[in-house]
Structure formats: structure tokens, C-alpha cells
Protein: DNA-binding NarL/FixJ family response regulator
Organism: Streptomyces griseochromogenes
Amino acid sequence: MARVVVVDDEPMVCGFLRTILGSAPDIEIVDEAHDGAAGIEAVRRGRPA
């Protein structure tokens, strides 16, 4: 299973990506962020792989 952090500066785009990626049986959304710094922290917390 792929563990994914969704990062985009537009919350609506993140929501769209969460919906699309989250519907795949082999993808787990572990966190979401809306800028680069928050994305780095989200990766540290969620440990995507």
C-alpha cells in the first residue's frame, strides 16, 4: 500500500486529490498540507512511503 501526503496551496485541490487518490484501494492518504513548510512537517508526521 502506498502512503501519500497531499500538498497544494489550494485547499479545494487538496480535497479533490484526497477524493481521487482515496478511492484507490492501494493508496492511503496519511496527511494534507497547504504550503511547502507544512508539507515537510506532514511528511515527517505521516511517514509516507
